Amino acid sequence: MRRLSQLIVMLTALQSAWVSMSASASAIEDAEQWLSEYVSLDDTFSIALSKNKIRFKGCKQKQYQLVVNQQFTKRFNVEAIVHYNKGLLDYGVLAQRVKSHEFEVVSWWDKGSYRVGVSHKIRPEHEISIPVAEVIQLPTSTTASVYFEVPLMEERHTLTVAASRESWKSDSATIQLPWNEAHDNQVKLQYAIAF
Questions:
Q1: pLDDT digits 0-9 by tens, 51-73
Q2: What is the C-alpha to C-alpha distance for residues 101 and 121, in angstroms, rounded to an integer?
Q3: Which of 47, 117, 185, 187 might form a disulfide with 147, Cβ 3.0–4.6 angstroms?
Q4: What are 151-182's pLDDT values in tens digits?
C-alpha cells in the first residue's frame, strides 16, 4: 500500500511538472536550464542533466544522468555523476524490466594537450523483474577506472581510452549465487564528435 501511495504522489508531481512546462521545450531542457541559471554563478561550478533513450520493437531503454562539476584549479576538477537507467525487453512471457542506479566520482587532471581521469563508481541497486519470479536484486557492483582523453584534429573530436575493473560481492544479492566474488577487466576505446 505504501508503494502505491508513493507512486500516486510521484505521478501527480510529474503531471503537475508537465502541465507547467512550455510545449516548445522538453522537460529535460527546461530542468537543465533552470539548474544552470540557479547554480552557475561562476565558471568553477556547473550542473548538467541529460536523458538518452532508444526504442525499437521489443526493447525500450532510458538513461538519465546528472553531472555536478567543480573546478578547483585551472588543471584539476572533480565530477560527481548520478546515473538512473531503466530498460524493458518485451517478448511476451519472457518480458523483463531492469533498473539500476549508479553513483560515480571522477577526478580529472588537465595537462594541456590531454586529460587524465581516475574514477570510482558504485551501482548499489540493480534490479531485474521477470514474470516468473519476484524482483531479483543483483550484487552491488564497484568499478575503478583510469581515463586518458586526447582532443584530435578538431576541437569537437575526442579520443578516450579507459581501463576499468568492475567487482561484485555475492553477499548483497537477493538470490544465492555460486560464487563469493567476481571481477571483470575492460579496456574501452571511444571516439566522439560533438555537434
A1: 999 999 888 999 999 999 988 88
A2: 10
A3: 117
A4: 887 778 899 999 999 988 777 666 666 677 78
pTM, 2 dp: 0.69
Residue-wise DSSP of 44-100: TEEEEEEEEEEEETTEEEEEEEEEEEEE-SSSEEEEEEEEEEEEEE--GGG-EEEEE
- Which residue type, as a one-letter code, is found at position 131? P
For the ranges 15-24, 78-87, 163-172, 179-188, the one whose mean pLDDT is highest: 78-87
For residues 120 and 104, give the distance between their C-alpha atoms in angstroms, rounded to a whole number: 6
Give residue 135's Cα distance to chain centre.
21
Residue type, 5: S
Cell of 129: 523483474
For residue 136, the one-letter residue type is: I
Q: What length is written for the chain?
A: 195
Residue with cell 590531454: 114
**Which residues are within 8 A (CB) of 171 and not within 5 positions of it... i.e. 6 or more apart?**
139, 180
> How much of the chain exceeds pLDDT 70, in percent?
74
Tell me if 143 sits within 8 A of 164, measured CB to CB.
yes
DSSP secondary structure letter of residue 32: H
